Amino acid sequence: MQRALRLDLTRFRSDAVQETPSGGLRIPARVTRVGVLQYSDAEGNTWGELRPSEEVFAEDSLATLRGAPVTDLHPGALVTPETWRSLAKGHVNDDVRPDGEYVAASVCVLDAGEIELVRSRQRVEVSCGYECDVDETPGEFNGIAYRAIQRNIRYNHLG
Protein backbone atom coordinates (compact mmCIF):
# COMPACT_ATOMS: atom_id res chain seq x y z
CA MET A 1 0.00 0.00 0.00
CA GLN A 2 1.10 3.53 -0.65
CA ARG A 3 0.13 6.69 1.21
CA ALA A 4 -1.71 9.25 -0.92
CA LEU A 5 -3.24 12.71 -0.62
CA ARG A 6 -6.92 12.85 -1.56
CA LEU A 7 -9.58 15.57 -1.88
CA ASP A 8 -13.34 15.04 -2.01
CA LEU A 9 -16.25 17.42 -2.47
CA THR A 10 -19.78 17.89 -1.06
CA ARG A 11 -22.23 20.80 -0.99
CA PHE A 12 -23.52 22.34 2.23
CA ARG A 13 -26.96 23.83 2.76
CA SER A 14 -26.43 27.55 2.41
CA ASP A 15 -29.95 28.15 3.79
CA ALA A 16 -28.88 26.60 7.14
CA VAL A 17 -25.92 28.92 7.81
CA GLN A 18 -26.15 30.60 11.24
CA GLU A 19 -24.32 33.67 12.47
CA THR A 20 -22.47 33.23 15.76
CA PRO A 21 -22.57 35.92 18.50
CA SER A 22 -19.03 36.99 17.51
CA GLY A 23 -20.00 37.45 13.82
CA GLY A 24 -18.60 34.20 12.48
CA LEU A 25 -20.66 31.58 10.66
CA ARG A 26 -21.68 28.11 11.81
CA ILE A 27 -22.48 25.85 8.88
CA PRO A 28 -24.02 22.40 9.30
CA ALA A 29 -22.51 20.20 6.63
CA ARG A 30 -22.08 16.67 5.43
CA VAL A 31 -18.34 16.81 4.83
CA THR A 32 -17.58 13.41 3.30
CA ARG A 33 -19.17 10.05 2.60
CA VAL A 34 -18.93 6.32 2.19
CA GLY A 35 -18.86 4.97 -1.37
CA VAL A 36 -16.86 5.04 -4.55
CA LEU A 37 -15.29 8.42 -5.25
CA GLN A 38 -13.85 9.28 -8.65
CA TYR A 39 -10.35 10.67 -9.06
CA SER A 40 -8.31 11.80 -12.06
CA ASP A 41 -4.69 12.60 -12.82
CA ALA A 42 -2.91 15.15 -15.01
CA GLU A 43 -2.96 12.74 -17.98
CA GLY A 44 -6.78 12.56 -17.92
CA ASN A 45 -7.01 9.06 -16.44
CA THR A 46 -9.96 8.52 -14.09
CA TRP A 47 -10.63 5.76 -11.58
CA GLY A 48 -12.78 4.95 -8.59
CA GLU A 49 -11.63 4.35 -5.02
CA LEU A 50 -13.86 2.82 -2.38
CA ARG A 51 -14.25 4.56 0.97
CA PRO A 52 -15.79 1.74 3.05
CA SER A 53 -17.88 2.55 6.12
CA GLU A 54 -15.47 0.79 8.49
CA GLU A 55 -12.73 3.20 7.36
CA VAL A 56 -14.81 6.38 6.99
CA PHE A 57 -16.49 5.93 10.39
CA ALA A 58 -13.45 4.59 12.27
CA GLU A 59 -13.07 6.59 15.47
CA ASP A 60 -9.37 7.26 14.92
CA SER A 61 -10.21 8.68 11.48
CA LEU A 62 -13.11 10.84 12.71
CA ALA A 63 -10.91 12.14 15.54
CA THR A 64 -8.58 13.76 12.98
CA LEU A 65 -11.48 15.78 11.55
CA ARG A 66 -12.45 17.26 14.93
CA GLY A 67 -10.89 20.72 15.15
CA ALA A 68 -9.35 20.48 11.67
CA PRO A 69 -8.68 23.86 10.07
CA VAL A 70 -11.03 25.23 7.45
CA THR A 71 -9.18 26.73 4.49
CA ASP A 72 -10.23 28.76 1.45
CA LEU A 73 -10.38 25.99 -1.13
CA HIS A 74 -7.37 23.66 -0.92
CA PRO A 75 -3.90 25.01 -0.21
CA GLY A 76 -1.04 23.69 -2.32
CA ALA A 77 0.15 21.48 0.55
CA LEU A 78 -1.08 20.09 3.85
CA VAL A 79 -1.74 22.54 6.68
CA THR A 80 1.03 22.42 9.29
CA PRO A 81 1.74 24.46 12.44
CA GLU A 82 4.04 26.61 10.30
CA THR A 83 1.31 27.37 7.72
CA TRP A 84 -1.78 27.36 9.94
CA ARG A 85 -1.80 31.11 10.63
CA SER A 86 -1.79 31.99 6.92
CA LEU A 87 -4.21 29.25 5.80
CA ALA A 88 -6.84 28.73 8.53
CA LYS A 89 -10.15 30.55 8.03
CA GLY A 90 -12.02 28.64 10.74
CA HIS A 91 -12.33 25.08 12.04
CA VAL A 92 -14.47 21.96 12.12
CA ASN A 93 -16.30 21.64 15.44
CA ASP A 94 -16.11 18.56 17.66
CA ASP A 95 -19.60 17.30 16.66
CA VAL A 96 -18.18 15.05 13.91
CA ARG A 97 -20.47 12.02 13.55
CA PRO A 98 -21.88 9.43 11.15
CA ASP A 99 -25.08 10.54 9.40
CA GLY A 100 -26.31 7.71 7.17
CA GLU A 101 -23.63 7.25 4.52
CA TYR A 102 -22.13 10.67 5.33
CA VAL A 103 -19.95 12.23 7.99
CA ALA A 104 -21.70 15.30 9.38
CA ALA A 105 -20.21 18.18 11.37
CA SER A 106 -20.73 21.85 11.98
CA VAL A 107 -18.11 24.07 10.43
CA CYS A 108 -17.12 27.46 11.88
CA VAL A 109 -15.93 30.15 9.48
CA LEU A 110 -14.26 33.01 11.36
CA ASP A 111 -12.34 34.96 8.69
CA ALA A 112 -14.10 38.10 7.36
CA GLY A 113 -13.16 37.46 3.73
CA GLU A 114 -14.29 33.84 3.88
CA ILE A 115 -17.55 34.86 5.62
CA GLU A 116 -18.31 37.18 2.71
CA LEU A 117 -17.61 34.38 0.19
CA VAL A 118 -20.09 32.12 2.02
CA ARG A 119 -22.73 34.85 2.34
CA SER A 120 -22.45 35.72 -1.37
CA ARG A 121 -22.71 31.99 -2.19
CA GLN A 122 -19.34 31.94 -3.89
CA ARG A 123 -18.52 29.13 -1.43
CA VAL A 124 -21.26 26.49 -1.25
CA GLU A 125 -19.14 23.35 -1.17
CA VAL A 126 -16.72 21.79 1.25
CA SER A 127 -13.95 19.40 0.41
CA CYS A 128 -11.89 17.29 2.79
CA GLY A 129 -8.14 17.24 2.32
CA TYR A 130 -6.71 14.05 3.76
CA GLU A 131 -4.14 11.31 3.48
CA CYS A 132 -4.94 7.62 3.23
CA ASP A 133 -3.34 4.31 2.42
CA VAL A 134 -4.36 3.11 -1.04
CA ASP A 135 -5.00 -0.63 -1.10
CA GLU A 136 -4.85 -1.62 -4.79
CA THR A 137 -7.62 -4.23 -4.45
CA PRO A 138 -10.27 -3.77 -7.17
CA GLY A 139 -13.93 -4.60 -6.75
CA GLU A 140 -17.49 -3.35 -6.99
CA PHE A 141 -19.64 -1.49 -4.46
CA ASN A 142 -23.36 -0.96 -5.09
CA GLY A 143 -22.81 -1.68 -8.78
CA ILE A 144 -19.92 0.81 -9.15
CA ALA A 145 -16.49 -0.53 -10.03
CA TYR A 146 -13.41 0.65 -8.15
CA ARG A 147 -9.72 -0.12 -8.50
CA ALA A 148 -8.55 0.61 -4.94
CA ILE A 149 -9.73 0.94 -1.34
CA GLN A 150 -8.88 3.87 0.92
CA ARG A 151 -7.63 2.79 4.35
CA ASN A 152 -6.33 4.63 7.44
CA ILE A 153 -7.95 7.94 6.47
CA ARG A 154 -6.42 10.91 8.30
CA TYR A 155 -7.93 14.34 7.70
CA ASN A 156 -5.79 17.47 7.47
CA HIS A 157 -8.20 20.27 6.56
CA LEU A 158 -11.58 21.15 5.11
CA GLY A 159 -11.41 23.43 2.08
Notes on the structure:
With 159 residues, the protein is mainly beta. It contains four helices and 15 strands. Strand 9 and strand 10 form a beta hairpin. The longest helix has 8 residues. It is globular and about 50 Å long. The two termini are 26 Å apart. The model has no long low-confidence stretch (mean pLDDT 94).
Summarize this structure as a short list of keywords or feature phrases.
mainly beta; 6-stranded antiparallel β-sheet; about 160 residues
How is this structure best summarized?
Strands 3, 4, 7, 8, 9 and 10 form a six-stranded antiparallel beta sheet that branches.
Please give the structural blueprint.
Layout: E1 2-7, E2 10-11, E3 18-19, E4 25-33, E5 35-40, E6 46-51, H1 53-56, H2 59-65, E7 69-70, H3 84-87, E8 90-92, E9 97-99, E10 102-109, H4 112-119, E11 125-126, E12 128-135, E13 139-141, E14 144-146, E15 148-158
Parallel strand pairs: 6-15
Antiparallel strand pairs: 1-12, 2-11, 3-4, 4-10, 5-6, 7-8, 8-10, 9-10, 12-15, 13-14
Indicate the mean pLDDT.
94
How many DSSP E strands? Answer: 15
Strand content: over 45%
Shape: globular
Helix content: 10-25%
Structural class: mainly beta
Major sheet attributes: 6 strands, antiparallel
Element order, helices and strands?
Answer: EEEEEEHHEHEEEHEEEEE
Calculate the terminal CA-CA distance, rounded to whole Å: 26 Å
Q: Which ranges are low-confidence, i.e. pLDDT below 50, for 5 or more consecutive residues?
A: none
Counted by DSSP, the helix tally is: 4
Oligomer: single chain
Radius of gyration, taken over Cα atoms and rounded to an integer in Å? 16 Å
